[in-house]
Design goal:
Low-confidence stretches: 407-421
Strand order of the largest sheet: 3-6-2-1-9-11-12-10
Shape: globular
Radius of gyration: 23 Å
CATH topology of one domain: Carbamate kinase
Structural class: alpha/beta
Bound molecules: aspartic acid, magnesium ion
Largest sheet: 8 strands, mixed
Number of helices: 14
CATH superfamily of one domain: Acetylglutamate kinase-like
CATH class of one domain: Alpha Beta
Mean pLDDT: 92
Number of strands: 18
Strand content: 25-35%
């Protein structure tokens, strides 16, 4: 008998018919003798609809009231699913995040889970009742309702799986797993059987929108085996997100990702002296904006250029903050470019292989794609390019690293991969 957390995304619960299908899956797990905890997202695009309503009410709604509003989406789906389950003779009970003790900090619309008390869930399970938990929400200080950021139901599911010591956290979604890249751009993209937490974490923060990156970080920290699979095709095993020893498929690169939600700000002719960069990035940080890549040129004539990338949605606010700064300190020209994209390759095989970056740059160059900025980590290389060439770059890199149908495999590198002898 296993304990399984099943999370269903918005498309999987979009209407009572789809909920009946979910109920069937819950029933089949129960018949296998497994204990199930269900976590749901709001139905379909309900969260978007609620956010739109809020901004129609007032252009800049209070974050507290926004949480009060958008947390209702999940309450609708969990209560309805509990009714559907009950109607089919399966004992089930819906719960809000607060009711089952998901305690968060007080950051409205982007709260972090601080602790979870599993008492109420365990009690429900011991009585043979399936808990159906509202994802995406928690309770902050002074019993305020909080939400966990867009896509946060994933995090609820993984956090519950960790807290309960569940055997599996199944994420049911509208895709049947993690692919080597977006199959919409590269039809030859292949579904991966396994991906390591680290790779998934990079992919999630690099624009692959299958799992919320905080959910992956949670899974990695608590070693929760996560499986991403389609709720419509359950005969397919999907993709396992697991620790590295289990994830090895011996490719150098495991995926190509892209992110078009990027912008770049360049400060031309910034004074080249101590404290200037700190002033700039302080001003940006104060706006709660996360900067991604930063490049500073070699100074000349006591001036230098600084470029950085950031989410496109925050670019206007960041520029305003720096404009304000420029009224006190000379900052040179401030340029904002929105038509850029970030294309990245990810893979733990990179650690034991040289020449990966060179190959990436050469492949882009062969297509005449100019690289504007570069950043690397141990297991990823990202290039900022002109947004127009995003799809081309993805196709070229996917092919160059042999990720399609005829895929290249690493020669077994025993030392690096601890291969059994
Ligand atoms: N309903 C929330 C959203 O749309 C949370 C989720 O779906 O995970 O972002
Ligand atoms: Mg989602």
């Amino acid at each position: 008998m296993a304990l399984i957390v099943q999370k269903y995304g918005g498309t999987s619960v979009d209407g009572i018919e789809k909920m009946r299908h979910v109920a069937k899956q819950v029933a089949s797990a129960r018949h296998n003798g497994d204990d199930v905890v269900v976590v749901l997202s709001a139905m379909g695009k309900e969260t978007d609809r609620l956010i739109n309503l809020a901004t129609t009410a007032t252009p800049d709604p209070s974050q507290r009231e926004l949480d009060m509003l958008i947390s209702t989406g999940e309450q609708v789906s969990v209560s309805l699913l509990a009714m559907v389950l009950n109607g089919q003779g399966i004992k089930a009970r819906s719960f809000t995040g607060g009711q089952i003790g998901i305690i968060t900090d007080g950051t409205h619309t982007n709260a972090r889970i601080q602790r979870i008390s599993t008492e109420r869930l365990r009690e429900s399970l011991s009585r043979g009742t399936v808990p159906v938990v509202a994802g995406f929400q928690g309770m902050g200080p002074e019993s305020e309702i909080t939400t966990l950021g867009r896509g946060g139901s994933d995090t609820t599911a993984v956090a519950l799986a960790a807290a309960l010591g569940a055997d599996i956290c199944d994420i049911y979604t509208d895709v049947d797993g993690i692919y080597t890249t977006d199959p919409g751009i590269v039809p030859e993209a292949k579904k991966r059987l396994r991906v390591s937490y680290e790779e998934m974490l990079e992919m999630a923060s690099l624009g692959a929108r299958v799992l919320q990156s905080r959910a992956v970080a949670f899974a990695m920290k608590y070693r929760v085996p996560v499986r991403v699979r389609s709720s419509f095709n359950t005969s397919d095993e999907g993709t396992w997100v697991v620790c590295e020893d289990l994830a090895m498929e011996r490719e150098i690169i495991s995926g190509v990702t892209y992110d078009k939600h990027q912008a770049r700000i360049t400060l031309v002719g910034v004074p080249d002296k101590p404290g200037v960069a700190s002033k700039i990035f302080n001003a940006v940080a104060k706006e709660d904006i996360t900067v991604d890549m930063i490049i500073q040129n070699i100074g000349r004539d006591k001036a230098t250029d600084i470029s950085f990338t950031l989410p496109r949605a925050d670019a206007g606010r960041a520029k305003q903050a720096i404009d304000r700064l420029a009224s006190e300190t000379a900052m040179g020209d401030i340029l904002l470019t929105k038509d850029i994209a970030k294309v990245s390759i990810v893979g733990i095989g990179m650690r034991s292989h040289s020449g990966v970056a060179a190959k990436m740059f050469a492949s882009l160059a062969a297509e005449g794609i100019n690289i504007i900025m570069i950043s690397t980590s141990e297991i990823k290389i990202s290039c900022v390019i002109d947004e127009r060439y995003t799809e081309l770059a993805v196709r070229v890199l996917h092919k160059a690293f042999g990720l399609g149908k005829t895929r290249k495999r690493l020669k077994t590198d025993k030392k690096a991969h601890h291969a059994p002898r």
